[in-house]
Structures are given as C-alpha cells and as structure tokens.
Amino acid sequence: MDKRSPIKIRLTERDASTTITQWVYQTLRQAVMNGQILPGRALTIRGLAEILGVSPMPVREALRQLAAENALEIQGNRRVMVPRMTAMKFNELCEARIALESHAATRALPYIDATRLAQLRQLDQDIDVAFEAGDTEEIGSLNQAFHRKIYTANPHQITLPLIESIWLQLGPFMRLANSLLDENYLVDHHREMTAAIEKQDALALQMSLAADIRDGVAFAGTPELLHSFIEQSAASSTP
Amino acid sequence: MDKRSPIKIRLTERDASTTITQWVYQTLRQAVMNGQILPGRALTIRGLAEILGVSPMPVREALRQLAAENALEIQGNRRVMVPRMTAMKFNELCEARIALESHAATRALPYIDATRLAQLRQLDQDIDVAFEAGDTEEIGSLNQAFHRKIYTANPHQITLPLIESIWLQLGPFMRLANSLLDENYLVDHHREMTAAIEKQDALALQMSLAADIRDGVAFAGTPELLHSFIEQSAASSTP
DNA sequence: AAGCGAACTTTGTGATCACATTTGATCGAT
DNA sequence: ATCGATCAAATGTGATCACAAAGTTCGCTT
Question: A228 and A159, same structural domain?
C-alpha cells in the first residue's frame, strides 16, 4: 500500500460550509507548501482519498486545480507528483518573484493608507515575536501575510494569484530557508519597506523588497547548501 | 433551456489519444480566448456538457482548471462565468503583461540561437502575410506564437504559464484589439525585437517588446472605445 | 391585481461503478 | 542466474446516480 514513506498530512477539521473539494484542496496545498510531500513522490488519487477519508472524486479535482497552479506536475504517465527542483529553476523562481512582487508593490503603493501601514508594522512586530520564539513556521506564515497585505491594497488585483503560484512552487524550499534564517537574520528589510511606503517612495520600496526576497533565499548563494537540498529532493525518487 | 444567446462554440475533432477532459479544456479555453463566450454569461456544467456532447464530469474538471488559471470566475453562488472587464483592470493586465514579458524575454535572451532567431523572423513574415490577407484571427495566433517562441528559449521555464494566464484574461479583448489593428499597424516592433535579439541587447528588446504590447492594446489609450467595449461586456448581464 | 409562499425544476457536489491502460510480480525459458 | 513474457493488481478516466441547495414558477391570499 505504501510505496515509500506513507505520507503524513496534517489534517484539519472541515468546516461544514466548505465543500469537500475545497477542504481537500486547502489541505493538499498546505501540505505542499510545508514540504510534507517530498518532491518526486508519486501521488495516487485513491491513495490520497484513503488518507483523507474521502472519495476519489474531490481528490481528483483538487489535484487538477493544484496542477493548474503549477504546484503539482502531471507526468506523461499521468502520474502526479511535486515537481523536482534544480538550481537553475530555483534561480528562475527567485528572479521571477522579485520581478513580479516589485511590480505588484509599485502598483499597490498609491493605495496604501495609514491604516494599512499600521497593520503592516503590526505584522512586522508579530514576526519579531515569532522570531524570538523560534517558530519558523509562524515566521513564514506571517511573512507571507506581510507581503500579501501590501499587494492587496491594489483594488484591481491581478498579480496576487501569479505571485502565490510562485510561492507554491518555492514552498518546500522556503521552509528550509526560513529555518536557516535564524542565524542570518541581520537586517530587517520589512522596516525599510514600511519606511519607503510611508514616504511613498516606489524605488526605495522595490530595492528593499528585492533585498528582502534575496535574503529570504540567501542560501541559494551558497551553492553547496542548495545542492545538498536538491539532492535530498532527488533522492526521494531513487528506491 | 437557453437563457440568452445559446452559446456557439467552435467544435474540433477530438484526437483519440487526448482525454475527453483535455479536449473539453482546450475547446473552452479557445472559446474564451476568441470571445465566443461573452463576459458575464452564466455557464452551467450540464449545459456545456450537452453542447459538447459529453458527460458533466469532464466539463466540471475543465471548468475548475480554467478557474484556477483565472480564465473563469467562480461566483459565490457557485456560478461560473467569464470575468467582466473594467478599465482599471484592463490597465493592470496590460502593465502586468509588460512587466512579466519583459522579464521573461530578458531571461530568455541568452538562450536564443541563430536557429530560433530565424524561426522568429519566419513567424514575423507569416504575420505580414496574414496581415495582407486581413485574417485577424491568424494574426493573433501567430503573434502569440512569436512571443512564445522567445520565452520558451529559456530551458528553465517558469514564467510562461503566468504569461498565458494573463493572455487568457485579456483574451476576448485582444481579439477586438487585433481587429482594430488593421488601421493602425504602422511600426513593426517585431522587426525591432529580432534586431535587438541579434545584438543580444536586452534593454532594446525590452523597449521594443513594451512598445509592441502597448501598440497591440493601443485602443486602451482611446478611452471612449475601451469604454464602449466594456459596456458591451457589462450589457450581457442585464436582461 | 399585487405580494408572498409553496412546490417544482435546475444545478453543483459527491459517491459508486465500469472499463481501458499501465504497473508490478511471478513464472518460465535460455 | 538473468532476462523476458504473461497474468494480476492498481490506477486514471468517464458515466450514472443520489442528494441538497439554490432558483424559478405557479397559485393562493389579501
């Protein structure tokens, strides 16, 4: 029944108002984002359905939706798996993140009012608290919330789904980045960003945002570390 | 049975090797892209299934996939429709297109060799031929192929799915833009782009690419024209 | 005649079933 | 002992069925 590791997925209580498909989708999305499903691991509809305690139908739809968001990859053998990572692909994802998020931030900047700016500063403080507590998972979650809070200021939102698609693809590796962040968390780029927002300085915002993203994945600059993790990713395929 | 206009969709022969879901997905995607389905028009699973001559199941999956790509919108009433357009949203989409495609082109530039450059020039000539023939649909298709041919030179492709998502959202309106292009097709930016590629000049490529995109949607600069089309889009909702 | 509620219809969701293709294993031949 | 073929289990795909919620229409009451 279980090919390799039996896939442990954190199950949450399902709200009665959400459909089963939505719940499965959110659960699997979170599992991918948190690295609970190793890249290269083959996923089966029936297998996931059994784990989640639902029929294969909602799993099928959730998988197709996640594949459409590039969170999963449908192989020619119509097997579904978390895409493997390569150093080049990782680099492309980071650069795409910077390009997309810089654009989104610039476009959102005029819409950020004092209320939202205060919320941003609060989120930054929350991150500091989580950092003191060493709760890396919370740090990642709050960090996402911080960025999302900026972009959603733009009422004509187009880019956020694209950005989240990139986050999803970087997901399992961002987790590693956050755990390594403990040591290297030197400059608080979020503070620079909020300062730039207060001055409505688009260029300064772009600069600090790019620095924040690059710091978040700083370990990509140390090739051996990235390489070891990619090997770990590739290793889950070889029996 | 038919609420308003009965939805005419161009049906193509289904290859025996492709699954029904894939065929339905491609058919609906093309229908959205060509503006065969008016924005605001309510779509039903069973209705589409009957039109396409398939069971509701593959339609459900195709709709969910298209919704994940932002080609369709799932309303709270769990009704599915082509999203309506607003002037601001249109502007955001164009700017996002420029940002994303500039980035993708720059990243692909080093990988474009002589062979691919020749293919690009061939596509540009084909566009001229289609332009002489007045075949606007062919122009749009070839124009997409031209852009795609640039970005796919990058072997570590990340951005193309995001770009295609934007194209899908602009889809019905690009069709209008192409039909209006007949009159205003003054400068051949594609020739500027191939020249920039030959010189491996990233900045010149970005400039001409942005100009090409802006020209393609030049009518957005004439507010009354855009407004009239948006009204047409909104009109399909009012009974 | 207009407002409102009840019955019917439509629609999305999810489960089960059937079938074709693929994967994996076991047995046999060289 | 190793390689290959055949058979069985597993898997994705798609159709049909069942059910609940939302929408629509008809008829009743005022």
Answer: yes
